Amino acid sequence: MTAPWELASDSEHRVAMEVLLRGPISRTELARRLELSQPSLSRLTKRLVRHGLLIEVGRVDSDGAGRPAILLDIESSSHHFAGIKVTGQYARGALVDFRGEVVEIAETPLSGTEPERVADTVAAVVRELDRHTRSTGLGVALGGQVVNGSTVRHAGFLGWEEVDFAALVEARIERPTIVQNDVAALLAAEHWFGIGREAETFVVITVGAGVGFGAVVHDRPIEGEDFGLGLISHWPLDCAGPPCSQGHRGCAQAMLTEASILSRAGAALGREVGWAELIDLAKQGQPAARQQVEGAASALGRFVGEVASLFLPGAVVLSGEGVDIAAIGNRQLTEAIASLSHPAARPPRVVIREPETVLWSRGAAIPALQVFARGGVTE
């Protein structure tokens, strides 16, 4: 990505980044966090406010007996970023501001899964999102293994191997583009604009078509080239459970994916059932449906409990299209977590994100925002 905020110095960039990540924030707190004197901090923020990158957004009572403290924040409308979540059928987009808030959404069905045709569809969605405000950069997220923010090394649901998808999209929209695994992008959104503002160590678990996992430890995401291969899907949960596609009995894939839950529910109900219907039946208290959903919630609780014992997170975020099982089977989820914890240990804070498709599109935009904010440097 190209150069960022047109800041005059590294010190100003450091101040702006801290406001982006922690704001709204007072100058006093900002100086404390950055270990700067008040005069130095005032000098650095003065130009940032004058040029409209930072804004004064309100006042709070000061810590002492002095005047109320003025809060600083990023001017959220100064830049926008497009995010596109690619599924097997759709390109779903969201335009976010510099605070990661969604301001526009759009989607278009795929006309095919060949890389060039998907790139055409992504470009069309970006143009739709850009009707009122041109985006500074674009992020694309999909289920699969992605390297260097550009090349899709493997995406089985699209039939792709070694596709430089960022280059294909950039050729169509002439916009800096970051391609990322969808769970990694969701993790990035939580890190900068979600639970990461409260917890330096947290994990994200997604359930739906697959099982996803990501972790931030001491404010740094755990990354690697094998992220996106679905390795966590085969985490053992129940040695007496059903087998997965690779023959592992009772692993996360066999216990927590929508397809596996629907298969067991269909057998229990004596007919095929879709996900929305299963969830409705479980909410209504239909015995067989309720039993299957609560059983899946218990398996998810074991997963959360084991992960929490390993990472000691400040929070566990549950998300994805299948996360309704956690809400319906909350008692079973909580009991399973507790069964794997030491009696003296504090239970992990569990945050359930509603299964909204826009969360994935918003997540797709955040890696592009991050690269821009860092000055074009990926970490």
Describe the 3D structure:
There is one protein chain. This protein is α/β, with parallel strands linked by helices and 379 residues long. It folds into three domains: 68 residues, Winged helix-like DNA-binding domain superfamily/Winged helix DNA-binding domain (Arc Repressor Mutant, subunit A), CATH 1.10.10.10; 124 residues, ATPase, nucleotide binding domain (Nucleotidyltransferase, domain 5, 2-Layer Sandwich), CATH 3.30.420; 149 residues, Nucleotidyltransferase, domain 5. 41% of the residues lie in helices and 22% in strands. It contains 13 helices and 16 strands. The strands form four sheets. A five-stranded mixed beta sheet has the order 6-5-4-7-11. It has a five-stranded mixed beta sheet with strand order 14-13-12-15-16, with helices on both faces. A hairpin with a 3-residue loop joins strand 12 and strand 13. Helix 1 packs across helix 3. The longest helix is centred in the C-terminal third of the chain and has 25 residues. The protein starts with 9 loop residues before the first helix and ends in a 6-residue tail after the last helix.
